[in-house]
């Protein structure tokens, strides 16, 4: 903003500058990008106002508080996907043509709004229950846009299976919001479209029961007695359910049967609890990776074993992997850098194997495919409510391998 001084008067055009008609939408978009990239609680209203080029009071003329900004940003982000799908839908078109039109529209919209996608995947948990249900209703409608023509294209599928495969295709499309790997938009769109179609053709009925090496939770007879381990386990559940910033040491201590002051004997701060949870998840992934690689005779077998191990982890402790991917922005900067490097190295192990199995993919394209595969365990797993039934895990494994192997 130009400032008035006696020696240099403000130019006339600056003095009469008018507010753009789309200012409210501009504010919501800026907020969506900031919340998606840094998390809802890490971003201040004044930062959003400054990014738009207005003052804090000017922003409050459009939104009464920060929560209203979150709600508008979340609903408009999901709403743009639903609007794109609705516009592309053609009830009289052949099912395959209709699916193709909708997928292309969703992919184009997601690529265009890639920087805001993390908002609806993770930050929506900070919405109030009624508002969260509005967002979920949009997602159900979006899923239905794919599931209905898919059911017509593949009448052999059950209603449950069409819902699962539609969700898996949506997860493929949304997977690009979880990372910042650079690739030309046209190549991203082509890769996502091919992968989403692979998923829609996945044969869930033929999926064998998953061969799990994870212990059956129902068979466990002994409970953890270590106070530190109890605190860590309860903290992950509470961070998953409420989000890091909405959780308190008092709640975590109460869930573990420990008073708040005693919690600090084991963890100096809530941030230390979160960091310990991240390191625990990273350790579990590292052990699962080592075991899968050590038991494999080739890269494809290794990918199959890795997928099974990853699904076992996701279904046995969904809160741990959810926190692992959703809350990294709340770690202290040093820890965040170290753990991002750990995550990157884990992904690169998969990328190396996939590049050997599918040499037609460039290393960058393989990275996109790996992220799409890893996202399935959480996105589709949540739809399945992380049912530990062997059939559900077998279907989850079939979807994940379809994304990887095509």
From TrEMBL:
Residues 1-22 are annotated as: Disordered. Pfam families: TetR_N. Residues 44-63, 248-267 bind DNA. InterPro entries: Homeodomain-like_sf, HTH-type_TetR-like_transc_reg, HTH_TetR. The keyword Methyltransferase does not apply. Keywords: DNA-binding. Residues 21-81, 225-285 form the HTH tetR-type domain. PANTHER family: BLR6905 PROTEIN (PTHR30055:SF181), HTH-TYPE TRANSCRIPTIONAL REGULATOR RUTR (PTHR30055). This is TetR/AcrR family transcriptional regulator.
């Amino acid at each position: 903003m130009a400032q008035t001084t006696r020696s240099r008067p403000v130019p006339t055009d600056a003095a009469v500058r008018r507010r753009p008609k789309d200012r409210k939408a501009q504010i919501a978009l800026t907020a969506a990008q900031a919340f998606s990239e840094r998390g809802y609680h890490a971003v201040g209203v004044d930062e959003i106002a400054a990014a738009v080029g207005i003052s804090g009071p000017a922003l409050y003329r459009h939104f009464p508080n920060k929560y209203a900004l979150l709600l508008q940003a979340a609903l408009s982000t999901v709403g743009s996907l639903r609007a794109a799908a609705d516009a592309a839908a053609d009830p009289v078109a052949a099912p395959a043509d209709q699916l193709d039109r909708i997928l292309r529209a969703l992919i184009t919209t997601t690529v265009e709004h890639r920087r805001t996608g993390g908002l609806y995947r993770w930050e929506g948990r900070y919405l109030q229950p009624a508002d969260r249900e509005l967002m979920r209703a949009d997602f159900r409608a979006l899923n239905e846009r794919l599931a209905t023509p898919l059911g017509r294209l593949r009448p052999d599928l059950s209603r449950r299976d069409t819902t699962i495969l539609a969700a898996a295709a949506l997860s493929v499309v949304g997977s690009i919001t979880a990372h910042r790997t650079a690739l030309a938009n046209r190549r991203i769109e082509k890769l996502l479209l091919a992968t989403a179609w692979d998923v829609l053709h996945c044969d869930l009925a033929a999926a064998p029961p998953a061969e799990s090496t994870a212990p059956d939770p129902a068979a466990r007879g002994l409970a953890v007695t270590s106070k530190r381990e109890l605190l860590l386990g309860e903290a992950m559940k509470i961070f998953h359910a409420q989000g890091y910033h909405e959780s308190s040491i008092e709640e975590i201590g109460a869930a573990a049967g420990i008073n708040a002051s005693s919690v600090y004997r084991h963890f100096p701060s809530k941030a230390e609890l979160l960091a310990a949870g991240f390191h625990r998840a990273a350790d579990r992934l590292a052990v699962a990776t080592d075991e899968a690689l050590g038991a494999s005779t080739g890269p494809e077998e290794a990918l199959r074993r890795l997928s099974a191990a990853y699904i076992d982890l996701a279904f046995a402790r969904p809160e741990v992997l959810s926190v692992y991917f959703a809350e990294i922005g709340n770690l202290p900067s040093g820890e965040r850098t170290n753990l991002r490097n750990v995550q990157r190295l884990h992904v690169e192990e998969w990328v190396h194997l996939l590049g050997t199995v599918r040499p037609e993919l460039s290393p960058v394209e393989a990275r996109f495919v790996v992220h799409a595969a890893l996202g399935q365990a959480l996105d589709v797993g949540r739809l399945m409510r992380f049912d530990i039934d062997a059939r559900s895990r077998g279907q989850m494994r079939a979807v994940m391998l379809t994304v990887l192997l095509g």
